[in-house]
Amino acid sequence: MQKEQIGLTLIVFILIAIGIVMIYSTSAIYAAEKFDDSYFFLKRQLFWLTLGIFVFLGITKIPYTVLREYKWIILGLSLLLLVAVFIPYIGKTAGGAQRWIRVASFTFQPSEFAKIALIIFLADYLTLRQRKLTHFFKGFLPCLLVLGLFLGLIVLQPDLGAVILLGAVAFILFFVSGIRMVHLLTLFLISLPVLYHFIFKVTFRRNRMLAFMNPWQDPEGTGFQIIQSFIALGSGGVTGMGLGGSRQKLFYLPEAHTDFIFSIVGEELGLVGALSIVALFAGMIFLGFRIALKAQDLFGRLLALGLISILGLQALINIGVVTGALPTKGLALPFISYGGSNLIISLMMVGILINIAKFGGKRKKSHAATRSFDLTPHI
Amino acid sequence: MNKQITRKILIVASFLLIGVLGVSFRLYYLQVVSYEKLAKKARFQHHIELTLEPQRGDIVDRNGEPFAISVDSKSVWADPRKISNPYEVASQLFTILDVDVQKIAERLSKKKSFVWVKRKITEGQVVKLKTLDLPGIYLLEEPKRFYPKGNMLSHVMGFVGIDNKGLEGLELRLDKYLKGIPGKRVTGRDRKGREVITMRDEEVPPVQGYNVVLTIDEVIQHIAEKELEKVYQKYNPTGAMIVVMNPKTGEVLALSNRPTYNSNKVRVSNSEMRRNRTVTDYFEPGSTFKVISGAAALDQGVVRLNEKIFCENGAFWHAGHVLHDTHPYGDITFKEVIEKSSNIGTAKIAFRLGSSRLYNYIRRFGFGSSTRSGLFGETGGVVYPPKKWSKYSLVAVPMGQEVGVTALQITSAISSIANGGKLMKPLILHRIVDENNKLIKEWQPQEVRQVVSKRVANDMTRALEGVVSRKGTAYRARVPGYRIAGKTGTAQKAEPGKGYSKTKYVASFIGFAPAQDPRICIGVFVDEPKGAYYGGVVAAPVFANVAAEVLKHLDVAPENVIQVENQLQSKAPVGEAVES
Question: The complex's ipTM?
């Protein structure tokens, strides 16, 4: 699976390179005004990237099967970190949410780490209990409780975007690993009123939802950000205003260098640039799924599926949000948005995927007959 | 089992593929289908069209002395879309600009991108506002009108409104020349409203307004203002006017009114103070009008200058009225009729002339129609045609009753005597030039008509010289070293329903100098002076003082010999104030 390894690495680093350029483009004026240093965000992102490359290289060297052995430690650490955000002096509040913990002068987002931890746990659990999964109490319920505990802690921060993302990925893993459809559908139906509660009983989320449904209702208030995103993308047209030529980044579009960076990409590089990034993500998803299909064991398959799903979904949801196809979630665009935690965790995920690819394609005899998968006819 | 998992993985993959296609379509929709609409919205919010105010043209006197200029100033405006707390901002603005909090807050709440807060603020306010740095509040360069001479010539200048648009006077009349053409700048701005210079994409510079050059001479204007103010203070009249003209060209060299106002402080004035009475108000001129009727009679040959007229010893019955002279006269020459301002003598001459010929001459001297001087708000006065006259009119009209004239009309009529009988159109505008001094429009001296012959004009001038002698009514109008010609007027004011007032007069003197080669013609009019009322007492000294200074300013050489001769001519006591 040499091709997948090279292809995935290439795609991810192209995305990161675009991200670095766009972070500078979108944040320079804002940073110059706020911190009197136009390189403020660029420097920090480059620091995280350097760190992330080491993490990435390290992870690719560790056989993914080792992760199973440390699953409890990883899960426990993740749980600790999720609790730590609520401890004063360690947790950091910003924008009405306690999502960060402070380490020296840097902040870290435990919900990012929880993504990896939960996917490892689920892949492992679903592999171990493969034969009991159809049984609700012995199979499904235990992992549902762990999932519930994690999602519960994250929703308290609150970070509903991460909860929905993780919920969706868990759902995918349950579905693929053979949980009964009756159980899944019931779970889905039960979660709907809960989601409804979280969305419509919390003012800012209800506003986001209303803004999504009709942004022009209140263009100066709730609809402001999404309308500014439309204007950015729309005014970019096919070829864009040219790199650095964005006008929306002149304080019109909030979060231009983080969650809404894709709008500025569309404004500066046009439909051509925007679709190129979508194509790169599509390529990443394609290669990720190939790795999942060719993984040497079930754990590898589920792990790769979970990781590529969470990366792919997060990218699609982010682009869906900035194009107004989905309500605002507060999710970063992997590899491109400014933000250290997300970059490191995303690189870790890719590292694990590469590692799975290394061992893939050479199935053990104990598994099903060796044959290559050709994706195209199936899709 | 494996096969089933593979199948399920492919199902998940196809969902993600749908997602990829979905966002791709969405991008196509936004960036291609909605491009026009969204690009327009982007332009609307990124660009702002600023009007670049043109500089209003200057108004200067004939020597380039400025009377109205434009100075830099700043105005405060707001973008209400950027203001979330109008009341708070309004009360902060109040502390600096002293604006009405309620009113400003309402303005700041409007759904507009541009509202005025306060126009043309002071330098100090600019500094304070800049330190406050309120979001959504901006400054704009706006030239402001300034009148460096304050209330000098304010009645001619008029003034402008806050938009630099002329509201009165020449500022209104010549607005189209003075205002210039506004320019515009289309430029980018960030969300905080700051201009992004790299996004400037269209700039049409404003075109400066034309400069207007007046016929006014600032020095003469100053002299006239000073003397008029003196008489205004001394006799406390309801109004006073002075007009100084060049009789050969019709150019108005100075013009002033009392009461007056300062064009820079229009707010503290009222319409009574702002009216340019010399052209907007007409009045019965009284005896100065005898020059008109006298000249008409001479021109028609019904009388000669040295012809004796019997003046009925001071009382003359006509049409059921008895007409009086101030002092009784018997046989006196027509020249003396003018010198002593005999009403009876004038009436008798008028009988010879007849109403229709008199009327024609009155009109030919320019009465009853506007002089079209270019001054704002000019009226033509009132002259009734003979068919509307009563039996008594032929007595009243020749001595300046039953006619309404403006100060400018009568001064220009007397000027025509000074100018050999040629009536010139009064001019206040000299030329209009652009900022590079290129000529746009020019007013040349314009002869209206030869009203009376040159000989008649000379004869009349001789008579008017006699007025300013010991024998005449205006000895106080004399200027040492120069021959002065002129005529006094002391007109009783008509009070509606009560006939002529015994206490309210218009005292006037209109004269020119030097008599044989006139350079200036000056009309002085004092409405309802208190304490004295004869034209020879109230108005003549104003003429003398102004003429003396102006002649010196114009470098007119004195004629000493004739002065002596003039003094020797008469041994009689000072015969002032002998007229009605």
Answer: 0.91
